[in-house]
Amino acid sequence: MADFIKHPEVPLPDLDPAPSFSEEELVFTEEERAQIAEYVRRYPTADGAVMRALWLAQEKFGFLPPEVIRLVAETLGIPYAQAYGVATFYTQYYKQKKGRYVLDVCTSFSCQLCGGYDMLHYLEEQLGIQKGETTEDGLFTLQEVECLGACGSAPMLQVTNGPYVFNLTPEKLDALLEDLRAGKMPAFTSVTLPQDEDEMGGNRRSDAPQSAVYETPPVARTLE
Amino acid sequence: MEATNGAPQTKAGDWRSYERVLLPPVRDLHKIDVYEQHGGYEALREALTSDRWDPKSVTDEVKASGLRGRGGAGFPTGLKWSFMPPVDPDVPRFLCCNGDESEPGTFKDRQLMEYNPHLVFEGMLLACYAISAKAGYLYVRGEYADWISHMERELENAYAKGYVGENIMGSGFSCELIIHKGAGAYICGEESSLMESLEGKRAYPRIKPPFPAQRGIWGYPTTINNVETLACVPLILRRGGAWYAKIGAQRHPGPVLYGISGHVNRPGVYEYPTGMLISDLIYEVAGGMRGGKKLKAVVPGGSSTPILRADMIDGVTMDAETLRDAGSMMGTGGMLVMDEDTDIVSWLRRVTHFYHHESCGQCTPCREGAGWLENIVTRIDEGEGRLRDLDLLIDLCSQMEGRTVCALADAAAWPVRYTVTRFRDEFEARCRPSLVAAG
Questions:
Q1: Which residue from A185, B59, B216, B419 has the fewest beta carbons nearer than 10 Å?
Q2: Do B142 and A90 touch (CB under 8 A)?
């Protein structure tokens, strides 16, 4: 047999990993089951609700190891293989345990040209880790991600699939890390349209926790 | 190209006095009562309760407006609606609103969803009425979690007021709207993979035909439109197709949310008519080049649209026909502006990385090709490239374009093909010096 078949370059994933959650932990509460049932009602078949149910499971368990995916599949009454296939297709579902805060720094397209990598490298220095790694205290995971759809506010990042932080600077990142260490998530930021600045004197929303404007992007020092 | 007496001509008319309609300057327009005070849901009421309108006349009005899809392909919206088969009471029909917005450089729909969500809902309801669908799914990318909860709140308000749900405004027409949350996959912006994703599967695109109008979600007739496209529909019904057809470029009319990013002083989302001169958008609208630098290149409509050198934008306006003649595409209207200091090779390397990462892996030319594009551009970027690599890249692009189930392979190949041909000297200069002469 050819060597490359016996020794594949890509290591196979552990097909039977030790479970991260015990049988007792692996249950949905009545409320969660009701919520999932509500998701199912939105689609002609239960399959459609799998993405919402996986989101719910990830919020509860923090990540999606095989036993959690199996729980979701059993709750929905769909094949485990299908739920596993969905969970492994989308990047926002975490298959491994992450830090308490996941910092997704955009370095794609516009952000690359406007300092995305400068911010990523600054965070690598500050946290003492490389992209893709988690700090030893389990607090931060740093990731490089593809376009998050906030190109006019480059450079930017997203915290744990939640709030966006726009127009990053090293000072802003220092403040963000300090807040997160104190358990404070950044508030939702409404970005004022330039035409709103001119025609309405600022943000059009009176109910946004905070607002920002589009700023001239910084000069990128590195593009990789 | 369109020069008259030496001065480039805009097709956007007197755009400096343009009054916004998608995002009009109204405080708190996202709140349902404010939206109602400004004519909100009136078009829906008219369409559902007045004798003047039936599904066909709504479709005809949209056809008359000349509205073309804002998601990238620019397909005529009314025509797409008319592809739906005749109504069969036993066969459900669906509408999908594509809010997956993940083409790099595109960030317009998010602002529409935040600042004018009811316009999107009203557009979806009107489209559902026109195609006789009983349910509309709004597919939003998972990264927009905060905007999804914002819209879910507003959708509840619309339900509470009886604009969505059973027997809307006593008309007998019932329609559910459902917001679907994605989970991070560029491919879901492609309509058939969006449908797969909605059905709770891995988002592998489907072979077409059958087209969504024949076999869409769960195998039923489905129409898919972009968020911004559907947001235009209530405006067309309120003010008439003829009014809409007069805005901007004749063959590609209407308001557009231009998302301008990159090396400009004032990036952001701007609403102006189609047919704006690219030079007006950069120098007048977006405040000019950052630091007074010279313009090097523009990507007019998201990462997959071919790049234009600074010398190629003279007189070029933002509409499908003019951009096609200029050698690019309108795409999503998400424009990336690059200044003279931009390292185009490193930039292309990152673009190829994006497509390699986002290829769903279903078709070999795309899965393997996107990886090879990245490998070869990386080799050139690191100074290890050979001159013949440039022709190899073009050849690879030819092997990918049009050879896969969906257009992602094309979208991956075009930036490479056009960046390498239009900036060939910079790629040659980066190849290993000893090998340049030898070829």
A1: A185
A2: yes
